[in-house]
Amino acid sequence: DGSIGISNLEKVYGEGTERTKAIDDLSFDIDGGEFVSVVGPSGCGKSTLLYIIAGFLDITDGTVSVDGTPIDGPGTDRGVVFQDYALFPWRTVKENVLYGLEEAGVPDEEADATAQRFIDMMDLSGFENKYPKELSGGMKQRVALARTLAYDPKILLMDEPFGALDQPLRETLQDQLIDIWGDLDKTVVFITHDVEEAVYLSERVMIMTRHPGTKKTVTEVDLDRS
Ligand code: ADP
Ligand code: ADP
């Protein structure tokens, strides 16, 4: 159902004088279908946390589980959206969206129909044959979202996805994300340094702190959306 369990998580980069403890004894659970934001100052460990959940980074200590099973590398149960979109520049919009479906082994005809459905959902109809460099930032991020949503991950992991966009466009995409989340029943973990954005979007906000030389703390704030 897309639940995430984080237990006594620790992440250390480097060794000796280069040693940096990015995450220190972090524990919390996210229910399936929940929309959680993680906010905090630059360097507090937000991206590290997200990329650990994604399975891109090794864990120093503790466990991270999805639906009760410890993760073992990346998987199609989790989809990631990056601040810089990370589209394939040599692929068209349609081919970018098809990518995850091809990786997941979806037969061509079904993949084509599914890709088109998400292209339409993201208001990209008519742009199927354009290349990323021909698109605006907002459109590129919508292609990235379509590409990730198309293979139907239970968990959507987003790292400052609207950070490179201007304010009106951010607000448009924030509202679009709320609509998608309401329709698709996904767990969302959304990283941002913008508290206003976090409060606007989420059901729960995790605040990570960074005090040099002292233990990091995480404070959770539940927002009543009823
Ligand atoms: P945030 O996303 O909140 O800005 P990060 O997760 O990027 O924080 O970084 C947390 C800490 O880990 C910072 O002190 C950062 O300098 C350090 N860090 C991040 N990535 C690496 C890396 N690849 N090697 C060494 N230190 C890193
Ligand atoms: P939004 O993402 O909210 O649509 P954008 O600034 O991305 O806002 O684009 C506004 C509109 O401009 C798009 O919906 C599209 O119709 C048009 N547009 C943007 N880039 C291109 C492009 N490369 N070629 C043709 N039309 C474009």
Automatic annotation (TrEMBL):
<protein>
    <submittedName>
        <fullName>ABC transporter ATP-binding protein</fullName>
    </submittedName>
</protein>
<dbReference type="InterPro" id="IPR027417">
    <property type="entry name" value="P-loop_NTPase"/>
</dbReference>
<dbReference type="InterPro" id="IPR003439">
    <property type="entry name" value="ABC_transporter-like_ATP-bd"/>
</dbReference>
<feature type="domain" description="ABC transporter">
    <location>
        <begin position="4"/>
        <end position="226"/>
    </location>
</feature>
<keyword id="KW-0067">ATP-binding</keyword>
<keyword id="KW-0547">Nucleotide-binding</keyword>
<dbReference type="Pfam" id="PF00005">
    <property type="entry name" value="ABC_tran"/>
</dbReference>
<dbReference type="GO" id="GO:0005524">
    <property type="term" value="F:ATP binding"/>
</dbReference>
<dbReference type="InterPro" id="IPR017871">
    <property type="entry name" value="ABC_transporter-like_CS"/>
</dbReference>
<dbReference type="InterPro" id="IPR050166">
    <property type="entry name" value="ABC_transporter_ATP-bind"/>
</dbReference>
<dbReference type="InterPro" id="IPR003593">
    <property type="entry name" value="AAA+_ATPase"/>
</dbReference>
<keyword id="KW-0813">Transport</keyword>
<dbReference type="GO" id="GO:0016887">
    <property type="term" value="F:ATP hydrolysis activity"/>
</dbReference>
